[in-house]
Amino acid sequence: MRTKWIAFFACWLGVTAGMTAQTTTDSTFTSNSPFPASGLAIGAYAQLDYNQPIGKSTYETGTLDAHRLVTTLAYRYNARLRFMSEIEVEHGSEIFIEQAWMSWKFHEALRFKAGVLLVPMGIINEYHEPPTYSGVERPLLDTYLVPSTWREMGAGFTGRLPAASLNYQLYVLNGFASYKDGQGLLKASSGLRKGRQKAIESFVHNPALSAKLSYYGLPGLEWSASLYAGKTQSDLFSGLDRRDAQAVARADSSVIGTLMLGTAVRFKKGRWNLRAQYIYARLSHTEAYNAFTGAELGSLMQGYYLEAAAEFFRDPAKGKALVPFVRYEFYDTNSKAEDHEPNPAYKRQAWFIGAAWKFNTGIALKLDYRWHQSALDSHWGQMLNAGVGVWF
Length: 392
Prior knowledge:
The chain is built from 5 helices and 20 strands.
């Protein structure tokens, strides 16, 4: 418990890892890649993984995976109007649109943006190019609580307020889907991850609000606070007669309210890179949802991580460095429940230790070792991970 509160206050007071380069770029382009000065720009990033579970008393087979390959196409029509897109191939077969949006600049402090948007929650969901984060895989917190890569259809405004050292984003989006094709999609085991609609024929009857405010006024430091709020979507409302009270009540039972708050800090000084993140997700109407769907969904999910990394054998001009790191993560996707005893199997923690050799800012060889445990486990599970991260 004490560790949780230390992590929470560390985030709010500013103990984590820096993005000096990102705070000098245009925050409305939510990739680290530079936007073209004019015309067309082409880029890509890729993640190739080897994951090997380490069994205590059994043999375990590892997996080799072309986890993702994402191609970026961006076009600047003029000083005010631009378009950006990312097409992703996951695991060598699944094809998705990860981003596809247009932006119109009224002023540095006000831009209109519409399309397939990344939800601005935490760190990784917006800045997820493999060479930019520690470890072979993305943090567990940014997989199970923030379901990266989390993108939805919507529109809103972004801007920069240089005098206050602030960036902001404010969007209206289609929300998570909680019920579709006769089944509930949300469970304690997978958190909100299966509720992402990913701009695949998304349906909406309850739009959601997403907002983020970032402060970059101190050298090497960025602090951000994020908000996501709204009700989930259910296809039971499609064609539903408003006068049928029984059917409306049934459809209401398939919907939950979602309030997610996040805070993250990054700090960079010299060779040191520190980062921390805390996510709090409050769910309402879960009792009726569980009774209707048979799910074991709790009313509270939360988690945090703390990470420290250092750069050795550095060549700042080229971005070359050996970067060892250590990270601790805690997350609970069934932290509190109104209609059942919280399941300790979903209260998890993990330690990571590893390193990356960065040839430059765009390509890295990675290696890490993970120890993970749920509150039910009597021993720590172990995993060896190795991979290649590419970005240009």
